[in-house]
Amino acid sequence: MSKPHAHSEHPVLLPSSLAFSSDTRLVGEVLGTVASAAARTADDTRFLAPALTWQIAAKAVGDLATDDHSPENLRAASVPVYALEAVRACRAALVEASGSSPGSDGARLADLLSDYLEVVHETDLRGVIAVLERILAVLALDLPSADILLTRLLLQQEVSPGHRAVLDDVLVAWRNAGVDC
Q: Exposed (0-12), middle (13-18) or buried (19+): which is 20, by Cβ within 10 Å?
């Protein structure tokens, strides 16, 4: 199996719900905060990933939000493969930080976010990780039947009543992953 081209795009179905958009805004903002701190230190290990990785992930996740909360609960987007890899790397860094020992780079990352998350977003690092995992579940959805919906949406065609069962499969998969759609 060959590795996908670095500039290839990953087409995805996204929920158009207010809850999903709120989740993507939260995580995009948190990743952006780490990106800013990492850029200031110019140390690629201090926050467990390079500043550019945090910046790419913050933009990719933040761009998933929408103000169009249509009743179909569905929209199509394209995420660059390198951005999806950056989001996964940031998730791994946050998971490492959540279980890190005092004085480590992971602890510095956890310390950077702890007060900010509690005061501004009324959550903690584990809460952000849970939200990020739901976002990744949406981005990684791999249902063969979902390709039908994705194709119709990319071609700007309506989702017909005949495709309702496929849409239901997608919604069930998202709900099973904890996504509010």
A: buried
Angstrom distance (rounded) from CA 64 to CA 159: 21
Contacts of 136 (CB under 8 A, 6+ apart): 87, 88, 91
- What does the pLDDT look like over 45-64, one tens digit per residue? 888 999 999 999 999 999 99
Range of the domain at 69: 9-176
- Alpha-carbon distance of 113 to 102, in angstroms, equals 15
Q: What's the structural domain count of the chain?
A: 1
Question: What is the pTM for the complete model shown?
Answer: 0.87
Backbone φ and ψ for 65, nearest 5 degrees, come out as: -70, 155
Q: Is residue 60 part of a domain?
A: yes
d(CA 162, CA 135): 28
Determine, yes or no, domain membership for 71: yes
Q: How far apart, in whole angstroms, are the C-alpha atoms of residue 25 and residue 111?
A: 21
